[in-house]
Amino acid sequence: MNEIIYKRNQLLAQKVIKGLESRNMSGYYAADKEEALKIALSLIPEQSSIAMGGAMSAHEIGLVDALKTGNYNFLDRDATEDKRAAMLAAYDADYFLTSANAITEDGVMVNIDGNSNRVSAIAQGPKHVIAIVGMNKVCPDADSAMKRARNVAAPINAQRFGLKTPCAKTGACMDCKSPDTVCCQFLITRFSRHEGRIHVIMVNDNLGF
Predict the structure, then answer these.
(1) Which of 53, 35, 62 is nearest to 98 (CA)?
(2) What is the CATH code for 3-203?
(3) Is the Cβ–Cβ distance between 58 and 52 less than 8 Å?
(4) What is the structure's pLDDT at 78?
(5) Which of 182, 188, 107 is nearest to 150 (CA)?
(6) What pLDDT score was predicted for residue 86?
(7) Using 50, 70 and 90 to split pLDDT, how confident is the model at 9?
(8) Do the beta carbons of residue 50 and residue 44 sit within 8 Å?
(9) Facing residues of 138 across strands?
């Protein structure tokens, strides 16, 4: 990464973290993927039960592999045929791993979901939520964050899963009502009523979509 961009991201991350803390969420800065992994593991005690949504960022920093091979109870929904049971079990997990489709400079997270298991678990259920967020997800305000979620994250995820949505063909949101739409539920996390529940690790790298 360009040194100037890296420095700018470092300063911007501190602004985001202050915003998160003002919203009763815990924010952390990681200079790279390796530091992000160390911070995440420091937050998760061994033998904890851990579930996750479709968080590519958690895979990219090596967190998923570390949890699968470590002394943890990783609830792997991809390893079971009963996906519904795995999703329901996530609501009682000690930790839920996720990312954000976008986050504002003052700490508001925006997520959209098709099955809605991810956004519902962020909102309620698991005892703790850990979000791994690359600096590419940071937007100036809530409006631009929503636009990023719908016009960047959603089309890429629709393409990734081979879905037959207009955005998968055009690369931009068409505000569709396709049966395959991934924009079924929108979650704006502007405050956490429960102190110490939501932890957001801002990583000075481009992660996820």
Answers:
(1) 53
(2) 3.40.50.10420
(3) yes
(4) 80
(5) 182
(6) 85
(7) very high
(8) yes
(9) 103
Selection from 128, 64, 58 nearest residue 100 by Cα: 58
pLDDT digits (tens, 9 = 90+) for 163-208: 999 999 999 999 999 999 999 999 999 999 999 999 999 999 999 9
SS (H, E, C) 102-150: EEECCCCEEEEECCCHHHHHHHCCCCEEEEEEEHHHEECCHHHHHHHHH
pLDDT digits (tens, 9 = 90+) for 89-128: 999 999 999 999 999 999 999 999 999 999 999 999 999 9
Query: Per-residue DSSP letters for 31-75?
Result: SSHHHHHHHHHHHS-TT-EEEE-S-HHHHHTTHHHHHHHSSSEE-
Q: Where along the chain do its domains lie?
A: 3-203
Determine contact, residues 154/173, Cβ cutoff 8 Å.
Answer: yes
Q: Is there a contact between 177 and 194 (Cβ–Cβ < 8 Å)?
A: no
